[in-house]
Design a protein that fits this description.
Strand order of the largest sheet: 1-6-5-2-4
Structural class: alpha/beta
Helix content: 10-25%
Largest sheet: 5 strands, parallel
Strand content: 15-25%
CATH class: Alpha Beta
Distance between the termini: 35 Å
CATH architecture: 3-Layer(aba) Sandwich
CATH topology: Oxidized Rhodanese, domain 1
Order of helices and strands: EHEHEEHEHEE
Radius of gyration: 14 Å
Number of strands: 7
């Protein structure tokens, strides 16, 4: 079973803003949350759910990922948007959530900072570049 699909950061923001039950799950590492920043959902009255897809510092996949989603109260029938740095880990997270019963799991394209450009710099696409609200951790 495939996840519900890919959305742009702007599309995710629109649903998060307009649908009371929509959830944003940031699957980056604790280090990224602290040093790179976090999406700011305060305008929606919501908090970002923080669940690592891969553990810091060893990079091991979090075997308890979907159990942590459940413990965080993420409803299985809500629109859920998974966000990572560049949109790769969030695909894996959306696939895992779908396998475990979340029926509306989406990947946020380009993640928080986007892919590398030709000079291997980030912040060329993604949540931050789209001008969506965020805060420094």
């Amino acid at each position: 079973m495939s996840y519900a699909g890919d959305v742009t950061p702007e599309q995710a923001w629109s649903v998060l803003h307009d649908e009371p039950g929509a959830v944003l799950v940031d699957v980056r590492t604790r280090a990224e949350w602290s040093y790179v920043g976090l999406p700011d959902l305060s305008a929606t009255g919501k908090d970002v759910v923080l669940v690592e897809w891969q553990r810091y510092p060893d990079g091991a996949v979090n075997a308890g990922f979907t159990a942590e989603l459940e413990a965080a109260g993420v409803p299985k029938d809500a629109p859920v948007f998974f966000l990572c740095r560049s949109g790769v880990r969030s695909v894996a997270a959306a696939e895992a959530a779908t396998r475990d019963g979340w029926t509306r799991s989406h990947n946020v394209l380009d993640g928080f900072e986007g892919p590398h450009d030709d000079q291997r710099h980030r912040s060329v696409a993604g949540w931050k570049v789209a001008g969506l609200p965020w805060v420094q951790g």
